[in-house]
């Protein structure tokens, strides 16, 4: 908790805060089925709303294991000192709260490969809760309920109560005893249960694993209960149970720029774990995130632009992007280039790379932002900088990227949290017409084209499938190589030609027109008879 207080103090004073998160999984396998375009896996066909609903299911299945926060202090002109913090998190288990979450085997293996400490996650993780969970806990405390959520806690409480019951019968007033080997919420649970059961005892925590029990008179007990320093007051219990959520609320109140890399899933977890359960409405999610964090900067969005404008080598991982910016001629180490130094307590990140440790990745993210902004500023002024750039100058050159969060493989290139999402331009949509190959499904179509190129597949009708790629070259290859295929006819999709809705409308119109002609002909023939 002392570390949280330190970070809270720095968070409200410093400029940007960069963050990174690690999860127990990304996309839930339980949500998948035979249709490649459904489930929670991203698809080029996804609209922002469809992607949000997919990701929402995964966010509700998985939890956050680690959160890194790097706070950049602009000490003088172009020098930045970084305080980077790494927090292991674990859902609050206080009272009746018992959160369920899923582990993805591939994600666990991935984090283990990079040295993730699961003992710290499970045993020492800082608790957190969102507003809905906090209301449940508040009601629990108001009702005076003492239901214990785990068998481990029940055993610890029973042992403590037995010890105190045996001791108090022979103890004198003001005499004390010490309960040891308690952990986590057991320190609070033991005190609340003992105070409720025995009117002549008082309790006080000693450190994080011990509780002192004192025999007192009823009058003395009443005086102690009214003390503002009593750790068992409901407000202090809620403060402790909120844990990391207290820091989240400080960050929200500070209204400083929040920086991440490829940060859509991070923002959704921030919202769901520390604020409120994710809403059904995509627009409501966007609106609320913008209210919480008015300035968002996604370094993935920024570096994608640099790649296009400055012939920046395209790299996928954050560590690769950082390495390119530090070593290439794109960002010359002149006297005006931002100088980034790690604070003494974070010096291990300067000595050894720690990829996919959230605190290290948060440091990389902020460094990439500053170096990218400097590169853009130099480009916009043709290198004619007259003085050391300040952070507001960097923000101004980043203006077109503010609140635009990268959107992986979808119908838009980024999500605009302060305006309308702009559709991106994909290569032409292809339609595959199947002949003489009954029972073909989306997965089989995907496998058929996989060897040649990568397409996302979506069924259009019984014998037709849509193919969408983000590379024009792949579209040309497929049109060329499948020109004479015996079972698959591939062509460019045309709305008026291939849309099921248009075809249905044309068929209905044709039937109506036919009946109209028949009615006219038969009506005319009847008139001739008379």
Description of the structure:
There is one protein chain. By secondary structure, the protein is of the alpha+beta class. Helices cover 46% and strands 16% of the residues. The strands form four sheets. The chain has a six-stranded mixed β-sheet with strand order 8-7-1-2-3-9, sandwiched between helices. A four-stranded antiparallel β-sheet has the order 13-14-12-15, with helices on one face. A three-stranded antiparallel β-sheet has the order 4-6-5, covered by helices on one side. Strand 13 and strand 14 (464-468) form a beta hairpin. Residues 33-37 have low confidence and may be disordered.
Q: What's the layout of helices and strands?
A:
Elements: H1 2-13, E1 17-23, H2 48-61, E2 64-76, E3 79-88, H3 105-113, H4 118-124, H5 131-142, H6 151-168, E4 176-179, H7 186-197, E5 201-206, E6 210-215, H8 218-225, H9 234-242, H10 245-254, E7 258-260, H11 264-275, H12 282-292, E8 296-298, H13 299-310, H14 318-327, E9 339-342, H15 348-351, H16 358-380, H17 391-397, E10 404-406, E11 414-416, E12 430-434, H18 442-450, E13 456-461, E14 464-468, H19 472-481, E15 488-492, H20 495-498, H21 500-529
């Amino acid at each position: 908790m002392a570390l949280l207080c330190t970070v809270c103090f720095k968070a409200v004073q410093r400029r940007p805060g960069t963050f990174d998160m690690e999860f127990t999984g990304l996309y839930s396998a339980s949500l998948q089925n035979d249709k490649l375009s459904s489930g929670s896996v991203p698809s080029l066909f996804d609209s922002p709303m469809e992607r949000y609903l997919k990701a929402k299911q995964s966010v509700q299945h998985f939890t956050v294991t680690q959160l890194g926060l790097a706070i950049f202090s602009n000490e003088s002109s172009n020098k930045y000192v970084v305080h980077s913090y790494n927090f292991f998190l674990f859902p609050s288990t206080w009272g009746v709260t018992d959160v369920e979450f899923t582990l993805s085997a591939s994600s666990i293996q991935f984090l283990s490969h990079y040295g993730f400490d699961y003992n710290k996650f499970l045993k020492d993780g800082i608790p957190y809760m969102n507003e809905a969970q906090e209301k449940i806990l508040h009601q629990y405390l108001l009702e005076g309920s003492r239901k214990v959520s785990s068998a481990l806690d029940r055993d610890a409480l029973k042992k403590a109560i037995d010890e105190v019951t045996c001791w108090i019968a022979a103890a004198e007033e003001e005499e004390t005893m010490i309960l040891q080997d308690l952990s986590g919420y057991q320190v609070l649970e033991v005190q609340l249960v003992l105070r409720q059961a025995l009117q002549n005892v008082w309790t006080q925590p000693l450190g994080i694993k011990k509780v002192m029990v004192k025999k007192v008179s009823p009058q003395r007990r009443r005086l102690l209960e009214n003390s503002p320093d009593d750790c068992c007051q409901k407000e202090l219990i809620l403060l402790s149970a909120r844990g990391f959520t207290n820091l989240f609320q400080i960050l929200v109140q500070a209204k400083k720029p929040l920086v991440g890399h490829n940060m859509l899933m991070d923002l959704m977890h921030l919202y769901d774990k520390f604020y409120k359960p994710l809403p059904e409405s995509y627009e409501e999610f966007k609106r609320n995130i913008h209210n919480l964090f008015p300035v968002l900067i996604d370094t993935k969005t920024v570096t994608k632009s640099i790649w296009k404008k400055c012939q920046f080598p395209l790299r996928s991982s954050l560590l690769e992007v950082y390495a390119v910016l530090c070593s290439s001629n794109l960002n010359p180490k002149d006297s005006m280039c931002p100088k980034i130094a790690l604070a003494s307590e974070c010096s291990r990140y300067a000595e050894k790379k720690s990829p996919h440790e959230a605190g290290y990745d948060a440091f990389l993210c902020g460094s990439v932002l500053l170096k990218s902004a400097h590169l853009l500023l130099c480009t916009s002024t043709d290198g004619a900088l007259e003085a050391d750039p300040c952070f507001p100058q960097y923000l101004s050159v980043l203006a077109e990227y503010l609140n635009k969060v990268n959107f992986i493989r979808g119908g838009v290139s980024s999500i605009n949290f302060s305006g309308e999402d702009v559709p991106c331009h994909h290569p032409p949509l292809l339609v595959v017409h199947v002949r003489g190959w009954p029972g073909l499904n989306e997965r089989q179509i995907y496998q058929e084209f996989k060897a040649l190129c990568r397409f996302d597949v979506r069924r259009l009708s019984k014998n037709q499938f849509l193919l969408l790629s983000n590379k024009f070259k792949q579209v040309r290859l497929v049109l060329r190589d499948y020109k004479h295929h015996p079972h698959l006819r591939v062509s460019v999709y045309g709305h008026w030609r291939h849309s099921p809705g248009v075809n249905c409308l044309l068929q209905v119109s044709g039937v109506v027109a036919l009946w109209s002609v028949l009615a006219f002909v038969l009506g005319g023939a009847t008139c001739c008879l008379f």
